[in-house]
């Protein structure tokens, strides 16, 4: 990052509020160049950069118009900013940063209703101050907000029960939780909780790191169960007091409408909308409080620290609408944990290729040079129990075992012996992508 960008961008942003309603082209260009330096943005061509500058200019006018309303009448409780998403159109943003499956959300069976706690709950709670919240994460362009919300809730209750804060693996949920959830194409927190219950635990972020794309499930990692939960509870939809009682006990997963333009460019303050209550995004409530007589939820997002208040948003509470701002009271759930975790599984050892050569844990040895039936040189495929392609350059997942290196695909054989292209979790839009379906070996 340019060392001057941290100074120049706030200065230009401040001056932009003093510009006339239609900023000049040179003023927008200067602001855009400072923004690019601030967010380390570059583009493949001048044509693309010119287009992004136009999108940026449109978002600039939207931000300025909203923020001017704060100074004019004081009724707006939050401000917007030209954040890391300011070069995206609203449609581009919606297709890349959401991921809650609202259709399945309302088909869920409420397994039990949560009762309100006996007695009063605290007037303010912030689980960050209790060390029960991991650092803000970034889902990237993968629509897996549901997995981040679910791991956040499990990380919180695990810390509360065991005293240990452990970052859990969203990638395991994306790759392996396929009964109802669809990885980067969307999902629901309840199903993620049920997956962890059925699997008798979940791996850590460190052991099964986030890649931001759909991959084949690493079944070896399914046996590495570092954190367990025993059940989960659905909060009664529209019962804000029940939700407050739940948050007083632990961080809670919720669905919201995150697709409104103001949500995309939110900067700070108490978000009051207006926004739809059509749920399409998942976040984590980590507390609640009040400021100048206005009540709010403290919510952790999964869009990195360059969005909102270092990755967090305050959302208005007690608004008089039982659905809550952006529907935040409509789809809340949290995991139940009754006891300690099992002993940590032993670390997997390296994969032995021969007496002298080995690959990393969970990798596959592929021979790149063989003579008289003896392999003299090995390469390592990063996939577990993979199929080594005959071109001695690529490998395929074990459940997509047919290498078609002429078409750059991994395929599978149907029962009748014919070859079909596998589309299930990858969806047809991703089929044909060499990088997503055929893995290069690593030296």
Automatic annotation (TrEMBL):
<dbReference type="InterPro" id="IPR025660">
    <property type="entry name" value="Pept_his_AS"/>
</dbReference>
<dbReference type="GO" id="GO:0008234">
    <property type="term" value="F:cysteine-type peptidase activity"/>
</dbReference>
<dbReference type="InterPro" id="IPR013128">
    <property type="entry name" value="Peptidase_C1A"/>
</dbReference>
<keyword id="KW-0788">Thiol protease</keyword>
<dbReference type="Pfam" id="PF00396">
    <property type="entry name" value="Granulin"/>
</dbReference>
<dbReference type="InterPro" id="IPR025661">
    <property type="entry name" value="Pept_asp_AS"/>
</dbReference>
<dbReference type="InterPro" id="IPR000668">
    <property type="entry name" value="Peptidase_C1A_C"/>
</dbReference>
<dbReference type="Pfam" id="PF00112">
    <property type="entry name" value="Peptidase_C1"/>
</dbReference>
<dbReference type="Pfam" id="PF08246">
    <property type="entry name" value="Inhibitor_I29"/>
</dbReference>
<keyword id="KW-1015">Disulfide bond</keyword>
<keyword id="KW-0645">Protease</keyword>
<feature type="domain" description="Granulins">
    <location>
        <begin position="353"/>
        <end position="410"/>
    </location>
</feature>
<comment type="similarity">
    <text>Belongs to the peptidase C1 family.</text>
</comment>
<dbReference type="InterPro" id="IPR000118">
    <property type="entry name" value="Granulin"/>
</dbReference>
<keyword id="KW-0732">Signal</keyword>
<dbReference type="GO" id="GO:0006508">
    <property type="term" value="P:proteolysis"/>
</dbReference>
<keyword id="KW-0378">Hydrolase</keyword>
<dbReference type="InterPro" id="IPR000169">
    <property type="entry name" value="Pept_cys_AS"/>
</dbReference>
<protein>
    <recommendedName>
        <fullName>Cysteine protease</fullName>
    </recommendedName>
</protein>
<dbReference type="InterPro" id="IPR013201">
    <property type="entry name" value="Prot_inhib_I29"/>
</dbReference>
<keyword id="KW-0325">Glycoprotein</keyword>
<dbReference type="InterPro" id="IPR037277">
    <property type="entry name" value="Granulin_sf"/>
</dbReference>
<feature type="domain" description="Cathepsin propeptide inhibitor">
    <location>
        <begin position="32"/>
        <end position="93"/>
    </location>
</feature>
<dbReference type="InterPro" id="IPR039417">
    <property type="entry name" value="Peptidase_C1A_papain-like"/>
</dbReference>
<dbReference type="InterPro" id="IPR038765">
    <property type="entry name" value="Papain-like_cys_pep_sf"/>
</dbReference>
<feature type="domain" description="Peptidase C1A papain C-terminal">
    <location>
        <begin position="121"/>
        <end position="336"/>
    </location>
</feature>
<feature type="signal peptide">
    <location>
        <begin position="1"/>
        <end position="24"/>
    </location>
</feature>
